[in-house]
Design goal:
about 170 residues, single chain, mainly alpha, about 0% strand
Length: about 170
């Protein structure tokens, strides 16, 4: 009977080890349960900007970085800083020759380098600048520019209506 008890005991031990090794989800011997700490890994496809003029792409991305750096989520339309950022994005749209699908690629590339939190904050900042842009492309342009010590003579593209590139950028950021 002694041999049978030893064999039965070994079988129970072997079964216990097998169950523990099958991922019961319990920590064993003080080891951390690794099944709870799995992190989802996302891969982002590199954006192919080879068909986009690099200076034009850089101009858009620098303009977005400038807005991100110089505008606060607490800024308001009509402030000197926001007016200047609004005229800056309008100048970009007037002087940049990229077409809509190229702008989409540039924005996609720029967004990939931002965290979700950074993008959330940036969208708030851009919404402020976009609201100012809407004033600058309307009959309010002259009075808005005066607030910042600017004039229509220097910013001739203000007051003439919406600019495609600003609209494309806005749509890509949504």
């Amino acid at each position: 009977m002694g041999k049978k008890n030893i064999i039965a005991g070994l079988c129970v031990c072997a079964m216990s080890v097998s169950l523990i090794g099958c991922g019961t989800g319990n920590a064993v011997n003080g080891e951390e349960d690794t099944t709870k700490n799995l992190v989802a890994v996302t891969t982002t496809e590199a954006v192919d900007l080879s068909g986009v003029h690099p200076d034009a792409a850089r101009e858009i991305q620098v303009t977005l970085d400038t807005i991100d750096k110089n505008v606060s989520v607490n800024d308001k339309t009509g402030s000197i800083n926001v007016i200047k950022q609004g005229t800056g994005i309008m100048a970009l749209a007037v002087g940049n020759s990229l077409v809509e699908n190229q702008v989409e690629l540039v924005i996609k590339d720029w967004k990939q380098r931002k965290s979700d939190e950074d993008m959330s904050n940036f969208k708030k900042k851009f919404d402020i600048v976009y609201s100012e842009y809407n004033k600058l492309n309307s009959s309010e342009a002259e009075s808005e520019l005066k607030k910042a010590g600017l004039s229509l003579a220097d910013y001739h593209y203000c007051g003439i209506g919406k600019l495609d590139m600003v609209e494309w950028i806005n749509n890509c950021l949504k």
